[in-house]
Please model this.
Amino acid sequence: MRLAEICSSPVFTAYPEQPLAVAAREMRAREVGALVVVAQGVEPQRPLGILTDRDILRGQVYQLADLHCLTVREVMTAHPLCIHADEEITEAIMTLASRGVRRAPVIDGRGALVGIVTLDDLLPLIAEQLKELACTAAPHRAATGDANESRPPVHPRSRDSQRRRAGE
Amino acid sequence: MTVNAGAQVSDAARLMCEEHVGALVVTAALAENPVPIGMLTDRDIVCAQLDRTVDFGQLRVADVMTSDPLVLNEETSVEQAIHQLRSRRVRRAPVIDPAGKLVGVLSLDDLLSHLGRSVQALARTAQLRSHPHQAEWHDRRGRVPRQG
Model:
């Protein structure tokens, strides 16, 4: 499955010159943990940075400044990791892991912002794949209500002997 | 990581940045043994500043923390812990021992790592059973053998 199919879109954005308090209010109103920072009025939108609650706090602590005295540019994480919309989800997980980040803007072939992906979006997909695998490996245990449910369980030893006969 | 309810928010914020954590367990001010009475996240601190006209330097942890947090017992099973975190819609919770003393924090990320290790062990066992020689090679070289 490609990232384009699952990433969150549209993305909530901020711009570098925006007062930090305005961006923080936007994050709270939208109930999101991050905004992608883009240049104001420029199309297509390209990610210049990412802004999280952690960035806001770190910016305040290290600059000894009040939230209401700062701009987005002063605290955002510039040059964020961006992931291509054509990447498979397993590749995307490896990419996020390699940089140790929970979320990343998703871009198309022109570098334009098309969405945002988070570990929380990817986890249910992996869980679904594991569930499918579990149902395939032990269909009689899967409480899915399908025809497999009524099939009697295969004794592990007889399953192993089946494999040997089949040359696995 | 813990912080006292009476501490200044600015000090708590500095601690969170220095320790690279997104949350602190808030403990009672005068308790002999640390007892969790709240959670303080980076979001709590940011949102508190939006609502108040008080100067950042004047805010106390007790003013902005989330009170009455979900608290897990160290005897709680992983399944129950996941269920409780989900029903309270939180990512992390303090963990106490049977005497009520704070012994740690459990987060969704910890649980994911735990389950991930189990899945990895399961995969390694399956690999050993179906391709014992390749699995041995894999272990020695630290690389996945190329199939076909």
About this structure: The CA atoms of residues 113 and 119 of chain B lie 10 Å apart.
